[in-house]
Amino acid sequence: MFRRFCHNHQGGSSGRRANYQLCFVNELPQVIFTMANLTAEDGGSLEIELRDAASQKRVDTEEFSSMEAQIYVLDGAFESQDWTAEEFDGNVVKPREGKGKLLKGKTVIKIEKGVGLIDKKCLQITDISSNTTNKTFRLGVKILGSNSLGAGIREAISEPFRVKDKRGECKSLTITHFRIFFVNNVLNILIFDVYLIISATKKSKRPALNDKVWRLRNIGKTGKLCEQLSENGIEDVKQLLRWNTTGLLRTVNKTLVLIIKKSFKNLKIIRE
Predict the structure, then answer these.
(1) Where is the Calmodulin binding protein central domain (predicted)?
(2) Where are the domains of the chain?
């Protein structure tokens, strides 16, 4: 279930009054990376709704059954709660010289029966946001066309988010907790805090015990270490931890022991 979120507000005397408004139903992540697919915070597609400005209920009447809307990148400092169409247009971020279009992919979506989707695989931002006033962007969505219906619909504006260079994504750390049970003469319970550094090209941000070992930093998918592990029947994170705990990993490759020490902190064995 999406969170019922809408950045748009109606009211005030300085801006224009609109009977309808576009709204973001779900939010973007607070930080995204250049050329990464634009998705909602939960990894799904971003959803836009057409709502009645007064009741905040979705509008799906026949006259609004099918429209098109354009997606824009806005300056993150644009915080007006009662903006005009001209103010919206004035806050559209222009691409830096030599950088090309700021949005790559499908920038026009259909609004059908009051709902539009920004497909999670169809749109990317090509440049970082650090050059703006407060180092953030917002997304804006505006109905296309100059007819009376389009003129009476306020634009949607997302919450601000940062866009960082994709080359820095692999520096992000994810902390995960695991418990492993296995028999080795006596029952051992392995409890540890894991610091996994994930390659920027992989989708999973929280590797599980059954994930392949090449998801760990310094173990390439087609590299020699991965090949040696595979030859010894070590294919996933769980098997790698077992071998390391029992000391057998050293017999495969001493370098692997150093990799484990760098990736896994506060390792300890508790015996029952």
Answers:
(1) 208-246
(2) 20-166, 172-271
* Of residues 62, 23, 46, the one with CA closest to residue 153: 23
pLDDT computed for residue 260 by the predictor: 60
Please give the structure tokens belonging to residue 97.
């010289």
- Between these two residues, 15 and 54, which has the higher pLDDT value? 54
Does residue 110 surpass a pLDDT of 80? Answer: yes
Q: Which two tokens stand for residue 23?
A: 């709204």
For domain 20-166, is the CATH number 2.60.40.340? yes
What is the DSSP track for 84-129?
-HHHHHHTBPPPPTTS--SEEE--EEEEETTEEEE-TTSEEE-S-S
E-only strand ranges, 144-245: 153-154, 156-157, 162-164, 173-184, 186-197
Share of the chain above pLDDT 70, in %: 65
Q: CA-to-CA distance for 160 and 238, rounded, in angstroms?
A: 39
Q: Does 78 score more than 70 pLDDT?
A: yes
